[in-house]
């Protein structure tokens, strides 16, 4: 795409920053999370990730062809990033057609139909995931996801998920939803939750790997730190403040329990470190195309997303709400931009707003 | 608490546009610009609240109960009676707007009369009857009116989100066959997909 951006008036500042460079950096930042996924779930995830990426690339190429646009646009790497992100929010045991259909919906429906990179309103990977949730609910809502017994890294390539080496378990969030209080008797320690050794989607389990990649993006200036911080803080505030029915059925907010020392802190750890929250906070809600332009707008946007996660997790039908929360925040985004965009240059007014040029 | 639940359910969980797919014609028709979407939203909130109140009153106190019309006949008569009630209400709103806010009246154009036969307004009146049938008249009337107001609020929220998105899409490089209404429906389906996250709540 850089060749499209040649004509402009001086002064010019030359920068090495290009769309392909940003996209491939994002893809690189996702590698640690993928490696942990490979360690935890085994080689099967390579199949899901490759199919997803392949499906995205093929759909992108077909769409560009149909729209009579240069196929060279494929090289910007955005289809690859969408493919990886989509695979990362799919379960490791997903059948082959799940990532294939997801990639087609993500790129075809949520990206190219809106005009391609930079024009999409919703995060393509998450539209793909939300679509799959309803197209193949059994594949995605399966409560018990297999993961491997801890063993040396090299053995993984000889291992088979279906063998006796694999053990199945409900995701921590699903346990929290059905039987709160039993999360840490399910065999997970705090370190397991933080490092990512638990059932879940392919690339979302390891908070430490995701934070590593996210920190790189923040350091490079591709991500505004306010956005993930607002998102995470709003979730924590929501989980602590919203009243939840206790064992006796009475509604109770978490905040008073903190002061008398009875708050179950491990539940909060499950909310923050398991599920797709970290991946969402650092790689999904921070998507340059679908997040607001101003810092103030990004904070509002992150807070809306975080509160939605808390609402869906605490009161909704799903144990996990990250995907929907970000899609809802995406929906609010044009309105947020509308009300938070900075004043125009030299107080210029829009022609549509009543001024004349 | 139950009223808080009722409002949240009407605005988010069973949003008339994004979860029940009612009232799509004004949703698509008036969502091109945020300014007219605001006007339309206010009109819908007003009409829905008033219609809920009046139709509930008409159902229990004016027509059916005193006249002793059977349940079967009522199911058919509801639509006719409610349409008449709602139509006269909309006529009233239109006259007020034309007199007091001509700019808004012109901005709404054909869509204000369209609320008359809007399935969302008729839908909320019908659903109120079956939903608040038991539990006393006063509580039912309050519930129905609140439900009408909250449903209008949910409609307005959907309309506002949609209009802001469509204003943004005006500048997007949408493929020619999908410009305008088609991409609006794609956006609506994506929003509906997002709102499915609320399912199972309240």
Topology (elements, then pairings):
The complex is a heterodimer of chains A (357) and B (202).
Chain A: H1 19-29, H2 31-41, H3 44-66, H4 78-88, H5 97-109, H6 124-135, H7 137-141, E1 144-148, E2 166-170, H8 172-178, H9 190-195, H10 207-220, H11 226-241, E3 244-245, E4 251-252, H12 254-259, H13 265-273, H14 277-284, H15 295-315, H16 322-340
Helix pairs in contact in A: 1-4, 1-10, 2-10, 3-4, 3-5, 4-5, 4-6, 5-6, 6-16, 10-14, 11-14, 11-15, 15-16
Chain B: H1 2-13, H2 24-29, H3 34-62, H4 64-67, H5 71-100, H6 102-108, H7 111-115, H8 119-131, H9 137-169, H10 181-195
Produce a short descriptive summary.
The complex is a heterodimer of chains A (357) and B (202). Chain A has 357 residues and is mainly alpha-helical.
Q: What's the total count of β strands of chain B?
A: 0
- Derived structural class of chain B: mainly alpha
User: Assembly type of the shown chains?
Assistant: heterodimer
Q: Categorize the overall geometry of chain A.
A: globular
Q: Mean of the pLDDT scores of chain A?
A: 82
Distance between the termini of chain B: 11 Å
How are strands sequenced across the largest beta sheet of chain A? Answer: 1-2
Rg of chain B, Cα atoms, Å: 18 Å
What gross morphology of chain B would you assign? globular
Explain how this protein is built.
The complex is a heterodimer of chains A (357) and B (202). Chain A is mainly alpha-helical and 357 residues long. Chain A folds into two domains: 19-140, no CATH class; 172-337, no CATH class. In chain A, 54% of the residues lie in helices and 4% in strands. The longest helix of chain A is centred in the N-terminal third of the chain and has 23 residues, at 44-66. The radius of gyration of chain A is 21 Å and the shape is globular. Residues 149-165 of chain A have low confidence and may be disordered. Chain B is an all-alpha fold and 202 residues long. Chain B has one domain (22-198). In chain B, helix 5 (71-100) crosses helix 8 (119-131). Classes of the chains: A mainly alpha (357), B mainly alpha (202). Chain A binds chain B through residues 67, 109-110, 112-116, 119, 121-122, 127, 130-131, 133-134, 251, 308, 311-312, 315-318, 321, 323-325, 327-328, 330-332, 334-335, 337-338, and chain B through 1, 34, 160-161, 164-165, 167-169, 172-175, 178, 183, 186-187, 190-191, 193-202.
């Amino acid at each position: 795409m850089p060749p499209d951006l040649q004509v402009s008036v001086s002064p010019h500042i030359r920068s090495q920053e290009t769309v392909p460079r940003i996209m491939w950096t994002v893809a690189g930042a996702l590698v640690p999370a993928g490696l942990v996924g490979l360690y935890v779930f085994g080689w099967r995830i390579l199949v899901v990730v490759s199919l997803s990426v392949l499906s995205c690339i093929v759909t992108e190429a077909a769409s560009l062809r149909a729209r009579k646009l240069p196929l060279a646009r494929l090289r910007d790497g955005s289809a690859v990033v969408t493919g990886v992100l989509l695979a990362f929010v799919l379960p490791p045991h997903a059948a082959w057609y799940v990532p294939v259909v997801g990639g087609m919906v993500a790129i075809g429906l949520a990206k190219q139909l809106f005009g391609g990179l930079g024009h999409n309103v919703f995060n393509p990977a998450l539209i793909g995931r939300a679509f799959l949730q309803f197209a193949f609910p059994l594949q995605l809502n399966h409560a018990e996801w297999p993961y491997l017994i801890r063993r040396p890294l090299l053995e993984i390539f000889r291992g088979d998920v279906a063998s006796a080496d694999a053990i199945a378990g409900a995701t921590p969030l699903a346990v929290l939803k059905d039987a709160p209080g039993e999360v840490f008797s399910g065999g997970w320690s705090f370190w397991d939750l933080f490092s990512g050794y638990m059932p879940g989607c392919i690339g979302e389990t390891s908070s430490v790997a995701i934070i590593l990649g996210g920190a790189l993006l923040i350091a490079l200036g591709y991500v505004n730190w306010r956005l993930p911080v607002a998102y995470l803080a709003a979730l924590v505030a929501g989980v602590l403040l919203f009243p939840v029915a206790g064992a006796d059925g009475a509604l109770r907010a978490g905040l008073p329990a903190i002061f008398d020392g009875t708050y179950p802190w491990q539940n909060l750890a499950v909310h923050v470190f398991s599920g797709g929250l970290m991946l969402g906070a650092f790689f999904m809600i921070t998507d340059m195309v679908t997040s607001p332009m101003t810092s103030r707008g990004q904070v509002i946007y992150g807070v809306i997303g975080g509160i939605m996660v808390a609402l869906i997790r605490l009161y909704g039908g799903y144990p996990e709400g990250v995907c929907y929360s970000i899609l809802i925040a995406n929906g609010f985004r044009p309105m947020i931009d509308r009300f938070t965009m900075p004043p125009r240059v030299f107080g210029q007014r829009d022609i549509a707003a009543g001024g004349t040029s | 608490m139950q009223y808080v639940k009722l409002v949240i359910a009407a605005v988010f969980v069973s949003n008339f546009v994004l979860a029940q797919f009612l009232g799509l014609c004004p949703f698509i028709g008036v969502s091109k610009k945020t300014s007219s979407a605001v006007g339309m939203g206010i009109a819908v909130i007003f009409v829905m609240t008033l219609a809920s109140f009046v139709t509930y009153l008409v159902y229990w106190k004016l027509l059916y109960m005193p006249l002793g019309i059977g349940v079967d006949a009522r199911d058919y008569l509801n639509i006719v009676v409610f349409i008449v009630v709602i139509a006269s209400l909309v006529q009233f709103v239109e006259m007020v707007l034309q007199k007091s806010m001509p700019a808004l009246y012109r901005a709404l154009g054909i869509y204000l009369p369209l609320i008359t036969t809007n399935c969302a307004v008729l839908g909320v009146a019908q659903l109120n009857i079956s939903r608040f049938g038991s539990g006393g008249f006063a509580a039912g009337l309050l519930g129905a009116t609140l439900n009408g107001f909250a449903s209008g609020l949910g409609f307005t929220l959907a309309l506002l989100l949609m209009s802001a998105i469509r204003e943004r899409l005006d500048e997007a490089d949408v493929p020619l066959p999908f410009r305008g209404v088609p991409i609006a429906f794609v956006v609506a389906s994506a929003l509906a997909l997002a709102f499915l996250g609320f399912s199972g709540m309240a």
